[in-house]
């Protein structure tokens, strides 16, 4: 599969499009969505549409093993998202408000990227339990990371 329909976000509660040759996700033109779980790992995606946050029902997204180098700031507005996997991309930074609106986020995986620093407010996640930052180029942590009391 190389392209996906514009109505992707309106079908089903769970969609697995992993291990294809997708280069991009379609813009979210959502009238009504029941989509909660989206796996587009192991593709060739280099851009996330800046209106993906309109799919308010998403609780799980796996974007690992793609070609992402950045995330749109709007991505942070996905307030019901519980698990986000961005591992094995080329991310050099996380948006500064990653924890401001992703307040339901419990699991964040960003291993094997090019991160050299974390946003200063990174440690103010409300319910985060798992953060995987392994295999990056981190040189220092924000002091607020010690405030994360629910980490397992």
TrEMBL record:
Alphabetical keyword list: Leucine-rich repeat, Repeat
Listed Gene3D superfamilies: Ribonuclease Inhibitor (3.80.10.10)
UniProt xrefs under PROSITE patterns: LRR
Pfam families: LRR_1, LRR_8
One GO term describing the cellular component: cytoplasm
InterPro entries per record: Leu-rich_rpt (IPR001611), Leu-rich_rpt_typical-subtyp (IPR003591), LRR_dom_sf (IPR032675), LRR_domain-containing (IPR050216)
Transmembrane feature ranges: none
Protein's name in the database: Uncharacterized protein
Organism this protein belongs to: Biomphalaria glabrata (Bloodfluke planorb)
